[in-house]
Amino acid sequence: MRHINIAIDGPAGAGKSTVARLVAKALGILYVDTGAMYRGVAWLAVRNQVPPDDERALLEMLRRHDLRFERDASGELAVVADGEDITSQLRDPKVSETVSKLSVHPGIRAWLTRWQQAFAKQGAVVMDGRDVGTVVMPDAAVKVFLTASIEERARRRQKEFTDKGFDVTLQDMREAIAERDARDSTRAIAPLKPAEDAHLIDSTGRSVDEVVEEILRLVERVPHE
C-alpha cells in the first residue's frame, strides 16, 4: 500500500472506530485510534486518582508512568501502561467520564499529537478522532467527518457498554453524549469540527459496510503520485 493517510473525525458514538478499523483492514494499513490514546491517559488518571482538571498534575503523572502505544499481534495499536496492556479496559464508564475533561488541556493534546504524527510519518495510516483532519494530519489524502443523530449514537454507545457488562441507561448515555459534544465543539484548543475539505458522511440508518465502502471509494479517487 502506498503511503496514504486517512483522517476520520466525528462526535462520540458516530462509529468512527469501527469504520476506521475496517477501512485499515481492507487497505492493509495501520489503524490508529487517537481516542484510545486519550483514554490511556484517562485510565492512568483514574488509577492514580489524579484530577482531570489539573493539567500540571496530569503531565507530572505522564512523566512518572510509562504510557506506550504499540502494534499488537494483530497489527493494531495497543495501549500499554507500566508494562500492562490496558486496551480492553479503556471503555470503563469512569474512563469515559474522565477523558473529555482532560482532553481540553493544551499540554496533554500536544503530548499525544506528537505520538500521532509520528505514526503518520512512519507509514500509511487510518486515524480517527476529533481533530485528526484539522490538527494532527491536515495534509491527509482523504478526510472524512462521520456523524449520526444523537439518538442513534446513544443507542450504539449504550450497546457497547452493556456488551462489556456495564449498566447504563439510554437516557444517561444520551445526556453524556450531548455533554461531550458541547465540550468538544466549544473547547479553545482543537475543537471538534469538520476540516474544510472533509467529506461529510451521516451514518444514521446506514450499515457499517455501506460507510466503509463509501470511504474506500474516496481512497480510490486519490491520484497516484
Please tell me about this protein's structure.
The chain starts with a strand and ends in a 5-residue tail after the last helix. The model has no long low-confidence stretch (mean pLDDT 92). Helix 1 crosses helix 9 (208-220) and helix 2 packs across helix 4. It has 9 helices and 8 strands. The chain is α/β, with parallel strands linked by helices. Strand 4 and strand 5 form a beta hairpin.
Question: What are the salient characteristics of this protein?
Answer:
8 strands; 225 residues; alpha/beta; five-stranded parallel β-sheet; Rossmann fold; three-stranded antiparallel β-sheet; single chain
Q: Topology, pairings included?
A:
Elements: E1 5-9, H1 16-27, E2 30-33, H2 34-48, H3 55-64, E3 67-71, E4 77-81, E5 84-85, H4 93-102, H5 106-122, E6 125-129, H6 132-136, E7 142-147, H7 150-163, H8 170-186, E8 199-202, H9 208-220
Parallel strand pairs: 1-6, 1-7, 2-6, 7-8
Antiparallel strand pairs: 3-4, 4-5
Helix pairs in contact: 1-9, 2-4, 7-8
Strand content: 15-25%
**Tally of DSSP helical segments:** 9
Give the overall form.
Answer: globular
Radius of gyration: 17 Å
H/E topology pattern: EHEHHEEEHHEHEHHEH
Classified by CATH, the class is Alpha Beta
Count of discrete structural domains? 1
Termini separation (Å)? 13 Å
**Class from secondary-structure proportions:** alpha/beta
Question: How much helix is in the residues?
Answer: 40-55%
Q: If you consult CATH, what is the topology?
A: Rossmann fold
The CATH H-level homologous superfamily: P-loop containing nucleotide triphosphate hydrolases
Query: Could you say what the CATH architecture is?
Result: 3-Layer(aba) Sandwich
Can you count the beta strands? 8
Low-confidence stretches: none
The major pleated sheet works out as: 5 strands, parallel
Mean pLDDT: 92
Biggest sheet, strands in spatial order?
2-6-1-7-8
